[in-house]
Design goal:
Elements: H1 2-22, H2 33-41, H3 47-64, H4 71-82, H5 85-98, H6 103-114
Length: about 120
């Protein structure tokens, strides 16, 4: 009997751990961001299409939760790609305000745009 209880506890422990991990709420509202990054990196969407999707999702994200790290920076790089430096600067500034630790890199990108 003791052996079966010990065996059962060994089997249930990982299940309980996984269930506990699954219940942890996320800090950020991702709303398709990872999928958009994947589509862009594999060349399945162009920068214009991705800008439209990310801007559309951004309003939902800001209404429901916190903007994830890198979201605004990625959007800014897409704007640079299509030649809209003004919007790129806005995005890089927003990333810097949301995540102060990104300031050195955002300042670098902002300096590159200003040249």
């Amino acid at each position: 009997m003791k052996k079966s209880i010990a065996s059962l506890s060994v089997l249930l422990l990982p299940v309980m751990f996984i269930m506990d991990c699954a219940s942890v709420p996320t800090i950020y509202k991702w709303d398709g961001y990872q999928e958009q990054i994947s589509l862009h990196l594999t060349g399945k969407t162009g920068p214009e299409q991705q800008i439209v999707e990310l801007e559309k999702n951004l309003s939902k994200i800001q209404a429901d939760g916190k903007t994830p790290p890198g979201y605004m920076a990625h959007l800014g790089l897409l704007y640079v790609e299509v030649g809209n430096d003004g919007q790129a600067k806005r995005c890089f500034q927003a990333e810097k305000e949301l995540f102060p630790e990104s300031a050195p890199f955002m300042n670098y990108l902002l300096a590159k745009i200003s040249k």
